[in-house]
Design goal:
Helix content: 25-40%
Order of helices and strands: HHEEEHEHEHEHEEHH
Distance between the termini: 21 Å
Largest sheet: 8 strands, mixed
Radius of gyration: 19 Å
Strand content: 15-25%
Number of strands: 8
Number of helices: 8
Length: 208
């Protein structure tokens, strides 16, 4: 067990599956993104789980083979019809769309959020987005399904929040190891374990 880390989170379960196969103990810490990057650069941390490949970070991070596909959807309140402007953002109607701070949704989102008539509301947690959308403060929010699935099934939100049928964006996610860490020696074994388990990882994860 690792203090402060939920044992039902996706990162925890993926790492348990992979590193149990390698017979390797792992200590997890839940930290803000900025602190994670600082510790990786300074060598205080060995690696980071479930991260996108970022060319700006390859000077201090080495990436594993792709671990999973992570998709982001737009979520909206059920008590209103699917807002047309969520389907056609060029309609000119101002949107209040929520996101969690420091979440990346790619260049398409950066362009649309800066050029289209949209009010982007940034909050500290995904549950805040669910509450604000249920209350009608937001037209909707953008979130990754892997994070949102468990909240969708909670009584407070079940049947009250839905997601658009098509993903807004998606991409491959990886484990990354600090280039100054001794854990670099494990990267070939990590890649081998990912290759062996990629086909059945989804089935072995506990469903919300």
């Amino acid at each position: 067990q690792t203090p402060g880390i939920t044992q039902q989170g996706l990162a925890y379960e993926l790492l348990q599956l992979l590193f149990s196969q390698l017979d390797q103990r792992v200590q997890l810490e839940l930290l803000p993104l900025a602190q994670v990057q600082q510790q990786l650069k300074s060598g205080q941390a060995d690696g980071v789980s479930i991260t996108q490949l970022d060319e700006r970070r390859i000077t201090y991070l080495a990436y594993s083979e792709p671990l999973l596909l992570k998709r982001a959807f737009i979520y909206y309140p059920n008590n209103n019809p699917v807002p047309a402007q969520l389907l056609d953002w060029d309609s000119g109607q101002n949107l209040r769309l929520g996101v969690v701070k420091n979440r990346s949704f790619g260049p398409k989102f950066r362009q649309q959020s800066s050029q289209l008539p949209m009010t982007l509301v940034e909050v500290d947690s995904l549950e805040q987005l669910f509450k604000l959308t249920r209350e009608g403060t937001l037209n909707g929010f953008l979130a990754y399904e892997l994070n949102a699935n468990s909240l969708l099934t909670q009584p407070a939100y079940q049947g009250k929040i839905s997601r658009m049928p098509q993903p807004y964006c998606g991409g491959a996610y990886y484990l990354a190891v600090g280039r100054h860490s001794t854990a670099m020696a494990l990267l070939p074994k990590i890649d081998q374990a990912i290759g062996q388990r990629r086909m059945d990882i989804a089935g072995q994860l506990r469903q919300p």
